[in-house]
Amino acid sequence: MKFSIVVNEGPYTHQASDSAYHFTKAVLAKGHEVFRVFFYHDGVNNATRLTTPPQDDRNIVSRWSKLAQGSELDMVVCVAAAQRRGIVDEGEAKRNGKDATNLAPGFRISGLGQLIEAGIQADRIVVFGD
Amino acid sequence: MSDIKKFMFVNRKAPYGTIYALESLEVVLIAAAFDQNCSMAFLDDGVYQLKKGHQTKGIEVKGFEKTYGALEDYDIEKLYVDQESLAARGLTAEDLCVPVEVVSRAELGKLMEEQDVLLSF
Fold first, then answer.
1. pLDDT at residue B1 greater than cutoff 70
2. Where are the domains of chain B?
3. What GO molecular function annotations does the UniProt record carry, in alphabetical order (chain A) (predicted)?
4. In angstroms, rounded to a whole number, what is the distance separating the alpha carbons of residues A73 and B92?
5. Taking all residues of chain B, what is their mean pLDDT, rounded to a whole number?
6. Domain containing residue A120: CATH number
């Protein structure tokens, strides 16, 4: 089956991102396809590579990056939500005159159309939020 | 992309206090631009999103009551409001800023079952 995953909450404050990660991993392990993981609302905060949790805690951001690396997962961060919250890649930094970038590996910034497409293309869309 | 699916956007949160309502409206408008069959459901504190007379000056937040009125220009005309949520908050359809269909929880459940994609905010 083809899944799309939506993550609507940031890391650490809410369980949603953890649950989405474990669900996505399980879906892939079962041999299903994940069409896309879409990060919206505070979910875009899962994509900053500046996250530095204590050493004995899970690193939610790099965990997503690693998962994408191993499975060519398409992880998309909503551009409008990202701009509001300061999640920036090189293109966005140039466009908006910012002096830094922080997008973690494996993520890409794109528009809300990608969320609608994820809904159209997938057999099931699963939303993780509060 | 010619596929047309039934999208329902489920709104459960008050319009201000969190950003869910505003950002969910942005998704709805994009879905409409993709020519999808869109509807919206309002339940719990989400019914306050449609309450007439948003006044946001005091909290210095951009108001977006007018956007609900513009939804029909995007061919989004199916707005369902949960009767129990309205009643629990002392509201009726007359208190709302746009025409809606007030439905029972059971009817809303049936409508949800008919959807291809449910996005809840």
1. no
2. 6-120
3. sulfur carrier activity; sulfurtransferase activity
4. 46
5. 96
6. 3.40.1260.10
Q: Is B76 exposed, middle or buried (0-12, 13-18, 19+ CB in 10 A)?
A: buried
A45 contacts on B by Cβ (under 8 Å): none
| Topology of the domain comprising B6-120 | Hypothetical Protein Ychn; Chain: A, (3.40.1260)
Q: What is the ipTM of this complex?
A: 0.90
Closest partner residue to A116 (CB to CB) among B20, B31, B118 is: B31
* Residue B97 phi, psi dihedral angles, 5° rounding: -85, -10
| Strand, helix or coil for residue B42 | strand
Cβ separation A115–B5 shorter than 8 A? no
Reported as a pLDDT band with limits 50, 70 and 90, residue A70 is confident
Contact B36 A116 (CB under 8 A): yes
| Distance to chain B for A2, nearest Cα, Å | 13
Domain that holds residue A32: 2-128
Residues of A with CB under 8 A from a CB of B: 6, 8, 40-41, 80-81, 84, 111-113, 115-117, 119-121, 125, 127, 129
**Burial zone of A1 (CB within 10 Å; 0-12 exposed, 13-18 middle, 19+ buried):** exposed
Is residue A78 flagged as an active site residue?
A: yes
Reduced to 3 states (helix: H, G, I; strand: E, B; else coil), residue A14 is: coil
Strand partners, B93: none
Tell me how many domains chain A contains. 1
- Minimum Cα–Cα distance from B30: chain A residue: A113
